[in-house]
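Quick log. Single chain, no ligands specified.
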Amino acid sequence: MYKEMESQPQDLDEAGLAASIADIMQEERRRTPAAAIKRPEFPDLRSDEEPDPEQSAPSLVGTFRQKLAELAGAA
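-> predicted structure:
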């Protein structure tokens, strides 16, 4: 009638999950630059070049997926 799971369910390591989420949030806080103060006497200068995606830091979603894979034992 139904197909059984191929592997037994595992207990959730809540302490490991909480520590991983804390690590991710700490990384994100370090990567997020402080907001620039806008002053009307200075012009708003912008770069004409697009940032290189290969050189940019990994996104929060990518980091979270990596940590989740590590906790699940896939990585």
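The chain has a mean pLDDT of 76.
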